[in-house]
Amino acid sequence: RQLAVMFLGLDRFKRINNALGHPVGDEMLKRVARTLATVVRESDSVFRYGSDEFVVVLGDIVDPQQIKGVADKLLAAISSPQPIDGHDLSVTASLGISVYPSDGFDAVALIKKAETAMRNVKETGPNDYRFFTEDM
Fold this sequence. Notes:
It contains four helices and seven strands, in the order E-H-H-E-E-H-E-E-E-H-E. By secondary structure, the protein is an alpha+beta fold.
C-alpha cells in the first residue's frame, strides 16, 4: 500500500486579497478548505499549511490511478466559482504530489518533495498537477 502527499498552492490568490480585501480572501480560503475536505475520503486528511497552501494526505492507495483521479477532482472542485460578498470568485491551484515509500519515508521529506513538484507546476502553468521526480 502507498500513501500520497499533495501540496496545493492557490494560483494568484494575492490578487483576491489585494482587490477585495482580506475578509473576502479569508472566506475564500475557508471555502477551499471545505471543498478539499468534501472531495477526499473521510479517512484522508486536509491541512492548511501556509497562507494560501494546503496539504492533502491520501492513505491506503492501492493503484496510482487513484491519486490522479483525486488530483483531477480537487482541481476541478476548487476552480468552480464561489459567490462571496457579491462577487463570483474562482481560483485555480497548482498541485504537487509525492508518494510513500518511493519518494521518502517521513512527513518532512514527503511534504518537501510535494512542494517542490507544486513549485514546478507554478513555473509551467497554473491549474495542473505533477508527481515529484528526482530531476526537479
